[in-house]
């Protein structure tokens, strides 16, 4: 009886696997759909009314009055183009009209609306193609509309909208092409609207050109989904813009590359010391094991004899404070130096380092940490991650 039950369970598992594989295969093999000027709608997208096994239901598009519609943050946008090579879809606010300079987007939308601005994105769409948190990889820029209680003539970034835009028939209406930094916000001016555009070569001193750029629309990405499908084993995923392909790297290879970059910037005596500790012939009582953190030994003064480290100025190795809990025994190739805040959040040691740094900033009253307004671009501040080493090359602590 037990044998029959086991056989039944095995058959059910095989059947479920077959059904799942068939579904995945059919999602990618459905004939393309079309609506208006978008003729080739395929996976991951699908149109309302397509067979249930076609596309991903989370990426369902509408077709209204022969216009393809994408739903983003509870709002509708008209689809202008889909590029399956670089995982982009270009959309435009439906209220914008090419030949009507008075037409404006219905609602504000900026980089800060997308969760990949701050952390590993779980959203369907991302603002950046590359899986790093930086503004340089953003594929659109902002156009900021302002209303001022006085005429602004000394700031050339402020472009007067003339008769095209009037905010409640009061004050002076301006548009700024590109990101508005804090120092560019004039006294007596209020931000009324922020909108994105991916048309980056427009004349930022002409309101007509600014409006045409808005009507072109902006690009967003579904690269996270593509990476999940292409690198299913939680490998490091990167987009190669030259070959237009996604590449998968084992995490240990990325870690090794990060360490090579660090070692390339160390003084020669550090490299010599690290090389000697790792590759020199074993001395009596010494093994070829990985680099060890002597700060974890019961007696750090006796853990390393003076003759074993001739480049060291002192035989004393102080123990790190208790909050640096991540001094550990690891090989260089096993340690990943994050290149972004998102990567750092994936490791408990780096998260502790970030918390320690923020705590120190708060205790020292170095900064006042406040929310960033959606229309203001941060002034390039970011975390830099490193590992502090002892003079013998062993790990001292993780530093953010």
From TrEMBL:
It comes from Vigna radiata var. radiata. InterPro entries: WAK_GUB. It is a single-pass membrane protein. Keywords: Signal. GO terms for cellular component: membrane. GO terms for molecular function: polysaccharide binding. It is found in: Membrane. Residues 1-21 form the signal peptide. The keyword rRNA-binding does not apply. Residues 30-93 form the Wall-associated receptor kinase galacturonan-binding domain. Pfam families: GUB_WAK_bind. This is LEAF RUST 10 DISEASE-RESISTANCE LOCUS RECEPTOR-LIKE PROTEIN KINASE-like 2.1.
């Amino acid at each position: 009886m037990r044998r029959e039950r086991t056989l039944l369970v095995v058959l059910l598992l095989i059947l479920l696997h077959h059904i799942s594989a068939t579904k995945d295969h059919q999602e990618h093999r459905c004939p393309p759909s079309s609506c208006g000027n978008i003729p080739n709608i395929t996976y991951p997208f699908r149109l309302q009314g397509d067979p249930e096994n076609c596309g991903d239901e989370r990426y369902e598009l509408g077709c209204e009055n022969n216009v393809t519609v994408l739903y983003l943050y509870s709002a509708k946008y008209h689809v202008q183009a889909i590029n399956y090579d670089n995982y982009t879809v270009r959309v435009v606010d439906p209220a914008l009209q090419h030949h009507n300079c008075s037409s404006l987007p219905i609602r504000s939308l900026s980089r800060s609306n997308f969760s990949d601005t701050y952390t590993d994105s779980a959203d369907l769409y991302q603002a950046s193609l590359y899986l790093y948190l930086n503004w340089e990889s953003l594929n659109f820029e902002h156009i900021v509309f302002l209303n001022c209680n006085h005429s602004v003539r000394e700031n050339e970034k402020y472009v007067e909208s003339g008769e095209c835009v009037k905010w409640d028939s009061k004050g002076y209406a301006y548009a700024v092409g590109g990101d508005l930094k804090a120092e560019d916000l004039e006294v007596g001016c209020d931000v009324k609207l922020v909108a994105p555009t991916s048309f980056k070569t427009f004349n930022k001193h002409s309101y007509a050109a600014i409006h045409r750029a808005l009507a072109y629309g902006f690009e967003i990405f579904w690269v996270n989904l593509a990476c999940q499908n292409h690198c299913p084993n939680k490998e490091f995923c990167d987009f190669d813009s030259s070959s237009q392909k996604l590449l998968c790297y084992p995490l240990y290879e990325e870690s090794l590359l990060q360490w090579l970059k660090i070692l390339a910037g160390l003084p020669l005596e550090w490299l010599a010391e690290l090389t000697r500790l790792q590759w020199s012939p074993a001395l009596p009582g010494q093994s070829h094991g990985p680099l060890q953190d002597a700060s974890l030994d019961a007696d750090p003064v006796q853990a390393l004899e003076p003759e074993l480290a001739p480049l060291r100025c002192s035989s004393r190795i102080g123990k790190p404070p208790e909050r640096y809990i991540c001094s550990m025994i690891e090989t260089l190739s096993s340690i990943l130096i994050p290149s972004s805040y998102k990567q750092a959040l994936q490791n408990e040691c780096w998260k502790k380092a970030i918390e320690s740094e923020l705590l120190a900033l708060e205790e020292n009253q170095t900064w006042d940490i406040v929310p960033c307004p959606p229309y203001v671009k941060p002034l390039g501040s970011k975390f830099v991650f490193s590992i502090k080493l002892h003079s013998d090359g062993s790990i001292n602590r993780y530093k953010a």
